[in-house]
Specification:
48 residues; 2 helices; 0% strand; rod-shaped
């Protein structure tokens, strides 16, 4: 774990930013459709 720590942190940092942007986009789309994002996260996304 220790040895991988730094690399993992950098990857997570980059990934987290992208993921949060995608999440925000998905949430706004879901909210526009009148759905609760929290419910949809637990379901498999059939459409992208």
């Amino acid at each position: 774990m220790e040895a991988m720590g730094k690399d993992a942190e950098n990857i997570i940092e980059k990934g987290t930013h992208e993921v949060s942007e995608i999440r925000l986009m998905q949430e706004s789309i879901f909210l526009q459709m009148g759905n609760c994002p929290r419910k949809l996260y637990s379901l498999p996304l059939s459409t992208s």
